[in-house]
Specification:
Elements: E1 2-6, H1 11-22, E2 26-31, E3 46-49, H2 55-63, E4 69-72, H3 79-84, H4 86-106, E5 111-117, H5 140-154, E6 160-166, E7 168-170, H6 188-196, E8 202-206, E9 218-219, E10 221-223, H7 224-241, E11 245-249, E12 255-256, H8 257-268, E13 273-277, E14 286-287, H9 292-297, H10 307-324
Parallel strand pairs: 1-2, 1-4, 2-3, 4-5, 5-6, 6-11, 7-10, 8-13, 9-14
Antiparallel strand pairs: 9-12
Helix pairs in contact: 1-7, 2-4, 4-5, 6-8, 6-10, 8-10
Length: 326
């Protein structure tokens, strides 16, 4: 496959680039480096620094190559920031994504893999959420992704697309070629790893009064390398079948915040200290994927479905970052 990939200097995008290269595929990365890190892009990959809404630049890239599909990762992802600055999220995640999709369509690139979010489901009383459930986004970040989804869904005659709703992505590449780089970490396992290597002192747990077994929020954690594999398989499926679809990306089981911390403390001998804080606006109590659909359609089987494996890979990556002063 020959893939155009936006946001390839980011955490998930860079891991997908590696998975594509490892499987012998070609990739051209677009990233404006506003949140990404160029060090995560392999040296042998075509790379263009540009904004996704730059119609001239994007159209020239498409015209000069014969892409089979575009994978669109570029976007802002911090829930709390989206609550404080919703316009930033609707401009970049919705308006600019639509501009990108329209440019792709106008120049004949109609196969789209779109990175969306499980937070589109919002508050759910179900044991797990499936792709047909009603969406109920609780924050501007989630709503901005839903609006971009809706553009594709409402223009199905113009595009063949796969919408991937990510649950909580964590861990690092098994060869430590890529992982999370962020000066403003918001992901639990990233923060946990920083505490373990003594980069920070403790973790704040936002809310201990949820209706869960220990009062803390429950999430479905998926290893980033398994998520990268999903992208390869869904792209192959889309190119072959030319049929649009929506898939959850998770493991179908949940861990509470304290479950994750206790697992880490079992591995690293009680090095993780924590405090309880009030709930964050926009957070939901429990979010677990129903993954029956994706396993049926693309015959995907996870390779890293183990919370200890996820935590260990994240900690090893954090050690590497510390050694490099990143």
């Amino acid at each position: 496959m020959n893939i155009l990939l936006t946001g390839g200097a980011g955490y998930i995008g860079s891991n997908v680039v590696l998975a594509l290269l490892d499987s012998g595929h070609k990739v051209h990365v677009i990233d404006n480096l506003s949140t990404g890190n160029e060090s995560l892009i392999p040296k042998n990959v075509k790379f263009s620094i540009c904004d996704i809404e730059d119609t001239v630049a994007v159209s020239n890239i498409i015209k000069n190559d014969n892409f089979d599909a575009i994978m669109h990762f570029a976007g802002y992802i911090q829930v709390e920031e989206s609550v404080n600055n919703p316009e930033k999220y609707f401009t970049n995640n919705t308006k600019n994504s639509i501009s990108l999709f329209e440019t792709c369509r106008d120049f004949g690139l109609k196969n789209i893999i779109f990175s969306s979010t499980a937070s589109a489901y919002g508050i759910s009383t179900n044991a797990s959420v499936n792709e047909g459930d009603q969406l109920n986004p609780q924050n501007p970040y989630a709503e901005s992704k839903v609006q971009a989804e809706n553009f594709l869904i409402n223009n199905q005659t113009d595009f063949n697309f796969i919408i991937l709703r990510y649950f909580n992505v964590a861990g690092a590449d098994y060869n430590l070629r890529s992982g999370q780089i962020s000066n403003k970490s918001t992901h639990l396992i990233k923060i946990l790893s920083e505490v373990i290597i003594k980069k920070r002192k403790n973790i704040n747990i936002f809310g201990n009064d949820y209706n869960t077994h220990d009062g803390t929020a429950i999430r479905d954690y998926i290893h980033v390398s398994d998520l990268a594999d999903i992208h390869l398989k869904t792209a192959e499926y889309l190119i072959k079948n030319q049929k649009s679809n929506i898939f959850n990306c998770g493991y179908g089981k949940g861990f509470s915040v304290l479950d994750v911390i206790n697992t880490a403390n079992n591995i690293y001998k009680d090095t993780v200290k924590f405090n309880f804080s009030s709930r964050r606006k926009g957070d939901v109590e429990k979010l677990i994927a129903n993954v029956n659909k994706i396993t049926k359609f693309i015959k995907w089987k996870p390779k890293f479905d183990d919370l200890e494996v996820i935590i260990r890979s994240s900690v090893e990556w954090e050690k590497k970052l510390s050694e490099k002063n990143l």
